[in-house]
Amino acid sequence: MTLQQFLLVLRARYLVVLLTLVITVGLTGTVSLLLPRQYTASAAVVVDVKAPDMVSGMMLQGMMAPGYMATQVDIIQSDRVARTVVKLLKMDENPTVRQQWQTEAKGKGQIADWLGAALQKDLSVKPSRESTVIQVEYTAADPEFAAMVANAFAQGYIDVNLDLQVAPARQYAAFFDEQTKAARLKLERAQQALSDYQQQHGITSADERLDFETAKLNEISSQLTLIQGQTTDSQSKRGTSQTDTLAEVMQSPLINGLKADISRLEARLTESSVNLGQNHPQTQRSRAELETLKTQLADETRRITHSIETTFQVNRAREGQLLSALQKQKTRVLQLNKQRDELNVLRRDIESAQRSFELVSQRASQTNIASQTNQTNVAVLNPATPPAQPSRPRVFLNVLVSIFLGTLSGVGIALLLELRDRRVRCAEDLSEALHMPVLGQIGAAAPSSSTQASA
């Protein structure tokens, strides 16, 4: 069918097209006017994806994920938010609503789930493409109710979002509380073990005690070294046969005095022997005095020799005592070293338990604060207000659509009627009907001049 044929068909059947258009537009307008008015209230919520964590102060990487906003939309449309809205509006406490639920659901399930499913049917959530603002729209016959439900969905989303953030923190808080108790018990046991060990061994200050015992060991060692030197010196003096050459003898003032007296008497005796003779009483007295001085010298030398022997014996005994004391002191110092090592192990256990307790306690404090937070990264940007104009039905838009559809339907009906009852409206129709070419075409005759004149 050519365009000319199509236009000729429309001109021939314009009444059908016009009637279809009028009927369509009339029905659409009538139905649009008869349909109950629906009002759509919209509440805007903004999601701060760059908000840091309230406890750690660090940026949460999950908020920067591409699917984060889509997840928030799914949360708003979830059954949990719908049940929260039911509780916020206290719809489940309405006797009329409960009666309707008994009638329709036969009392099966939970009334909150039934009401939530009914509310979700008229809910529309539209995220913004280039921002983090989400439009929460609700449609109802009452504008006040539509605005109330839209605001309730926004608040329910905030409550659920906060609960989703706080719930893991609460679980972690309970876990870290148990860990804190275990760490505190471990620390107390380590401290008690150190205290028991100190009481058992009578330790007040291990380092000071070890320093004192070490100094005492060094002193005993010094004394032993000195005594050993003195013993060796005494032993060497004991073995000599020339007692006159001993230092003690040579340095004795008494012996030196006796030797001087002996020398003077010997000189006097020699002089007396020469001048007076051997038998002279003065010579005899001088000889007796000389013998007495020599006897005193021998006795004094013998006494010094005996004192060296006594000193040797005393030094030997003292050396044995010091050796025994040194061995005991070494054992004591070694024991103190062992106790100090054991104390260090116990102290390290305490330090390790203290660090663990502080770390777990810090984490428990953080999670406890996080579990009690009432802040979230979602806020209501624009609360819903009762709309002044209904959102449905859209009479003007419906009429425009009905005009287009009515025209299209009328043209379609006209073409169907033309196909069922084919008419010859032009040369192309005749050629198609007879399957013969058209050789000529006689146009409509123009009126003659005589006819015009007579007329």
Automatic annotation (TrEMBL):
Domain Tyrosine-protein kinase G-rich, first and last residues per copy: 339-416
Keyword Metal-binding: no
GO CC annotations on file: plasma membrane
Main location: membrane
Stored Pfam families: GNVR, Wzz
Topological type in the membrane: Multi-pass membrane protein
Coiled-coil regions listed: 255-356
Spans through the membrane: 12-35, 395-417
Keywords assigned: Cell membrane, Coiled coil, Membrane, Transmembrane, Transmembrane helix
The Polysaccharide chain length determinant N-terminal domain, residue ranges: 2-87
Subcellular location field: Cell membrane
GO molecular function: protein tyrosine kinase activity
InterPro entries from the UniProt entry: Bact_polysacc_biosynth/exp, Chain_len_reg_EpsF, GNVR, LPS_length_determ_N
Listed NCBIfam families: EpsF
Protein name, UniProt field: Exopolysaccharide biosynthesis protein
